[in-house]
Amino acid sequence: MKKADLEAYRQRLMLLRARLCGDVSALAKSALHGAAEQGGAASSMPIHMAELGSEAFEQEFNLSVMETEEDAISSIDAALRRIEEETFGTCTGCEGTIPKMRLNAIPYAPMCVRCAEQEEAH
């Protein structure tokens, strides 16, 4: 892959990483704020059981999104390492070339579509 292409992907990955880190930070603050409210003054306590369930669901949802985004950040970090090691764009499964169309859609993709499908099937 050309150096200009690698630099363009590196920039995209860095921007995506920064955005996801901001999202994770905001979700963590939201989860902490919700936990502080539940342990705080009685006036902030939900009155109905349904409200308690809604708050628990929202907190679980936020934690799930945080986990997914943290996984994406780890994948982005791995892609940035592959750029430094000059192996970016090479499938970690078959060692073939990952098509640019796939890298444009998922710039941190470590595998070609065929290998990714095979891994998901197992």
3D structure, described in words:
This protein has 122 residues and is mainly alpha-helical. It folds into two domains: 3-88; 89-122, no CATH class. Helix content is 71%, strand content 0%. The protein contains four helices and no strands. Helix 1 (3-38) packs antiparallel against helix 2. The longest helix has 36 residues, at 3-38. It is elongated and about 60 Å long. The mean pLDDT is 85.
How far apart the termini lie comes to 30 Å
Question: Would you tell me the overall average pLDDT?
Answer: 85
Radius of gyration: 20 Å
Tally the helices.
Answer: 4
**Helix and strand element order:** HHHH
Globally, the shape reads elongated
Structural class by sheet pairing and helices: mainly alpha
| Share in helix | over 70%
Number of strands: 0
How many structural domains can be distinguished in the coordinates? 2
Low-confidence stretches: none
Q: Tell me the fraction of residues in β-strands, as a range.
A: under 5%
| Main pleated-sheet profile | none
GO molecular function, one term: zinc ion binding
Protein name: General stress protein 16O
Organism: Botrimarina hoheduenensis
Keywords: Metal-binding, Zinc, Zinc-finger
